[in-house]
Amino acid sequence: MRYFDTSILIPLVMREASSDQVSNFLAALPFDHWSISDWTTVEFASFLARAIRMDQISAREAVPIRDRFQMMIEESFVTLLPSRADYRLARDYLVQPDTGLRAGDALHLAIAANNAASEIHTLDRIMLKAGTRLGLPMSNGPL
Fold first, then answer.
1. What is the pTM for the complete model shown?
2. The CATH number of the domain where 134 resides is what?
3. Domain range spanning residue 121?
4. d(CA 31, CA 77)
5. Which one of 13, 36, 51, 88 is most buried, counting C-beta atoms within 10 A?
């Protein structure tokens, strides 16, 4: 099972400098149990709301982006529900201050670890470094 963090999915639905690289990278991956968590959808909603508040996109422009994201999730990913064990492992990751993890990233890593992810894909450098330090199978995709 491959687990995908929000950061690697955003360039697939919203034009960014890494969009082509991420798209090509994912197209080359075997389609074998791609997964996200419900937390991913919360982070994506937060990302869109922030982009609107910062006047990077309008509320009207956010609608098709949100719709593309939802369609992509429904068509390509299994959505994992965070469990009590996931929250506990995330807490354990966070009490290790040398990881530099934020709560949301710790939860992503815990969900992926507890579901035996073969790879955890992210563009987030802090999460990549922390996950590697924790011995998790991290991948920064095309970068």
1. 0.93
2. 3.40.50.1010
3. 2-139
4. 10
5. 36
